[in-house]
């Protein structure tokens, strides 16, 4: 019997402003063997963004159709635009034994957990909430009121950590990347993922 | 509230001849932050083995006393000699936040699991059983009959894999070490080990 290990779906999420995008970019620059899911969005392309590379750009109607046909693993509306994860790409990669990483907001992660409970849920956490506040303020794009509102959201988002498998503190980006890579490697060694491989092997039943 | 993370007890086990000792030595040479438990044994020292470094060499009477006083986390008789893990060292290290690795036979690992279910059980597996046979034969110290008997034991030991958390294939020693290090790092990121840290933190409840 040949055993084919499936790939992992890795969901990287955490409070808004924690640095999910930065960590994902750093992982990509390292050449980690993780495939990045490409989101569908109704947002207009920003300068330099290419359809099918950075996003699949969709009209509202197209996006609505994807929802109805259950072609999205999760989706959310954010600042007036819809974002979602096309399910086909994820399934194709996983079946072929490759890992896929999704970088999404916490609400999206909860949706994925319902549809894909066997995914690996990693919560990227700020070293503390003051640090998170500094990052949000540091962007320089938010009003004081919006910052307070975001902090309040971030606090409730932290409570969602209990739905995840792992928590990775984003104290230093490279350390966070090390931890994420270790988690993925470790998960590939879990007995429940591999037992079939060994129990089916010629040697074990004495043949 | 200050949160103090405990160390992990890592139990590395697997069929006789799989290379547990070699992998442990390689981990040690790398300077991994794992503390090595020193076993007690009634076996006579082999050339170069030092009391208190490689083993605590004990008489039968001394060993029996350790069993009676529950000073051993596990023990086993193997080819006429007794081997066991002194419990005091393990507890001391773990309470102080340091990780400890035990390299033991599969029967001992099952005993540890009963007494210490929160330990991390890693099964070191041969790429296949023929490979394992080659290694046992390669030692050149065993008769053909003993080799067959060992292989039969190894096959039944493989079945015990299901009691473990992780399986690491010892295809290449350094790769096996990478996987073990990744597993330990990943386990330190598990939400169930860390949730208390975040939920007790000032920031999260808004203070």
Automatic annotation (TrEMBL), chains A, B:
Q: Please name the PROSITE patterns in this protein's record.
A: GUANYLATE_KINASE_1, GUANYLATE_KINASE_2
Q: Which UniProt keywords apply?
A: ATP-binding, Cytoplasm, Kinase, Nucleotide-binding, Transferase
Q: List the protein's name.
A: Guanylate kinase
Q: Which organism is it from?
A: Sporolactobacillus inulinus CASD
Q: Which reaction does it catalyse?
A: GMP + ATP = GDP + ADP
Q: Which Gene3D superfamilies match?
A: Guanylate Kinase phosphate binding domain, P-loop containing nucleotide triphosphate hydrolases
Protein localization: Cytoplasm
Alphabetical list of PANTHER family matching this protein: GUANYLATE KINASE, GUANYLATE KINASE-RELATED
Q: Where is the Guanylate kinase-like domain?
A: 7-185
Which InterPro entries does the entry link to?
GK/Ca_channel_bsu, Guanylate_kin-like_dom, Guanylate_kinase, Guanylate_kinase_CS, P-loop_NTPase
What positions does the entry give for ATP binding? 14-21
Q: What is the lineage of its organism?
A: Bacteria, Bacillati, Bacillota, Bacilli, Bacillales
The stretch of residues making up the signal peptide is none
């Amino acid at each position: 019997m040949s055993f084919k290990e499936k790939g992992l779906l890795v969901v990287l999420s955490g409070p808004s402003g924690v640095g999910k995008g930065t960590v994902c970019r750093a992982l990509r620059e390292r050449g980690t063997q993780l495939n990045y899911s490409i989101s569908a969005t109704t947002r207009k392309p920003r300068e330099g963004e290419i359809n099918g590379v950075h996003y699949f750009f969709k009209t509202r109607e197209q996006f609505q159709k994807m929802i109805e046909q259950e072609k999205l693993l999760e989706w959310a509306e954010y600042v007036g635009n819809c974002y979602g994860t096309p399910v086909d790409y994820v399934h194709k990669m996983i079946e072929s034994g490759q890992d896929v990483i999704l970088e999404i907001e916490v609400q999206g992660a909860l949706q994925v957990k319902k549809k894909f409970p066997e995914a690996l849920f990693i919560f990227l956490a700020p070293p503390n909430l003051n640090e998170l506040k500094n990052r949000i303020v540091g962007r320089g794009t938010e009003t004081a009121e919006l910052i307070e509102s975001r902090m309040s959201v971030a606090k409730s988002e932290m409570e969602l950590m209990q739905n995840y498998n792992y928590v990775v503190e984003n104290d230093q980006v490279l350390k966070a990347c090390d931890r994420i890579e270790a988690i993925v490697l470790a998960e590939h060694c879990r007995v429940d993922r591999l037992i079939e491989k060994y129990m089916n092997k010629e040697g074990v039943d004495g043949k």
